[in-house]
C-alpha cells in the first residue's frame, strides 16, 4: 500500500494545484489560439525603401504553456506585493479589508459614467480593488481606460490576478511610451509576448499591440531604418572611442606625474654624479 506522511501531503498538494492550474490555462489557451505557434507579427512589414524587402518577424517565442506559466508567475507576484503591503502597514487585516464601492448593483458600471479621475473606481464583482494598486498605477490605468472609453480588465478572474494584470498592462504602456528609435527588436518581441499573455487572460490590450506594430515598423522597417541602424552603430563607436580616450588621458596623466617624480630625483642626483665624474676623469688622466 502507498503511504505518505502529513509533510509529504503538505509539500505535494501545492505542486499538484500548480500543475492542475497550468493544465487548465493550457486548455483555455489552446482553444483560443489561432494559427501556428510562431506567427508573423502583423503579417509582414515591407519597407518602402528600394532594394530587397525586409520583413519584421517577431516570433511568438512563448508557446501557449509559456503564457500560462507567465500568468501564474504574475499572480504569485501580485500575492507577494499584497502581503508585503500588509506587513509594511504594521497589520494584516485592519484597514485592508475589501470594501464595497458606492456604485450601482450592475456587474460593472459603464465607463460613460466616469467624468473624471475622482469618479474612476476599479471594480471586480461590484467590489472595489483599487486599494491594492499604487497611485501611479491607478492613474496610468485610468488614462488607458479613458483612451478606450471602457474598462480593460476581465470580470471572470480573482482579484489578485486582476491586480497583477493591471500592473503589467500599465508597465508595458509606460515602457512603450518611453521607447526610442534605438530600441532593439528583442524589446519589441518581449512586449509582444507579454501583451499576448495579457490578452489570453482577458485584458483588452489589442490597441497596445496595434501601437506596438506601428512603433516596430517605424524603427525596424521604415525607409530610415538603415540610417537609424548606422547612426546607432556610429554613436556607440564614438562613445567607445571617447571612453578609450578618457582611459588614455588618465594613463597619460599618471605617466606624466611619474616622469616629474623621476625628473626631480634625477635633478637632485645630477650634481653628485657630475662631481664623481670629475674625480673619475682626474684619475683616468693621470700619467702612468
TrEMBL record:
Does the keyword Coiled coil feature in the UniProt annotation? Answer: yes
Its keywords, alphabetically, are:
Coiled coil
Which residues does UniProt call coiled coil? 231-265
Q: What is this protein called?
A: Phospholipase-like protein
What is the native source organism of this protein? Answer: Helianthus annuus
* Taxon lineage: Eukaryota, Viridiplantae, Streptophyta, Embryophyta, Tracheophyta
Amino acid at each position: 500500500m502507498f503511504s505518505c506522511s502529513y509533510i509529504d501531503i503538505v509539500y505535494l498538494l501545492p505542486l499538484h494545484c500548480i500543475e492542475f492550474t497550468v493544465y487548465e490555462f493550457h486548455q483555455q489557451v489552446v482553444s483560443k489560439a489561432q494559427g501556428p505557434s510562431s506567427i508573423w507579427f502583423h503579417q509582414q512589414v515591407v519597407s518602402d525603401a528600394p532594394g530587397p524587402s525586409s520583413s519584421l518577424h517577431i516570433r511568438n517565442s512563448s508557446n501557449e504553456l509559456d503564457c500560462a506559466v507567465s500568468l501564474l508567475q504574475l499572480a504569485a507576484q501580485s500575492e507577494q506585493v499584497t502581503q508585503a503591503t500588509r506587513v509594511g502597514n504594521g497589520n494584516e487585516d485592519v484597514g485592508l479589508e475589501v470594501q464595497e464601492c458606492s456604485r450601482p448593483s450592475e456587474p460593472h458600471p459603464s465607463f460613460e459614467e466616469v467624468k473624471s479621475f475622482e469618479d474612476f473606481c476599479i471594480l471586480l464583482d461590484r467590489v472595489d480593488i483599487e486599494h491594492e494598486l499604487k497611485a501611479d498605477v491607478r492613474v496610468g490605468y485610468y488614462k488607458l481606460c479613458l483612451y478606450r472609453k471602457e474598462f480593460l480588465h476581465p470580470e471572470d478572474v480573482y482579484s489578485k490576478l486582476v491586480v497583477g494584470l493591471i500592473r503589467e498592462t500599465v508597465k508595458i504602456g509606460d515602457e512603450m511610451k518611453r521607447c526610442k528609435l534605438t530600441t532593439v527588436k528583442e524589446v519589441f518581441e518581449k512586449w509582444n509576448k507579454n501583451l499576448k499573455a495579457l490578452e489570453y487572460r482577458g485584458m483588452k490590450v489589442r490597441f497596445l499591440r496595434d501601437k506596438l506594430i506601428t512603433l516596430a515598423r517605424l524603427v525596424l522597417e521604415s525607409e530610415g531604418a538603415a540610417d537609424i541602424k548606422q547612426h546607432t552603430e556610429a554613436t556607440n563607436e564614438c562613445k567607445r572611442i571617447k571612453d578609450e580616450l578618457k582611459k588614455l588621458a588618465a594613463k597619460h596623466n599618471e605617466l606624466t606625474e611619474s616622469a616629474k617624480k623621476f625628473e626631480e630625483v634625477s635633478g637632485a642626483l645630477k650634481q653628485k654624479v657630475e662631481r664623481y665624474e670629475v674625480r673619475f676623469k682626474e684619475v683616468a688622466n693621470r700619467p702612468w
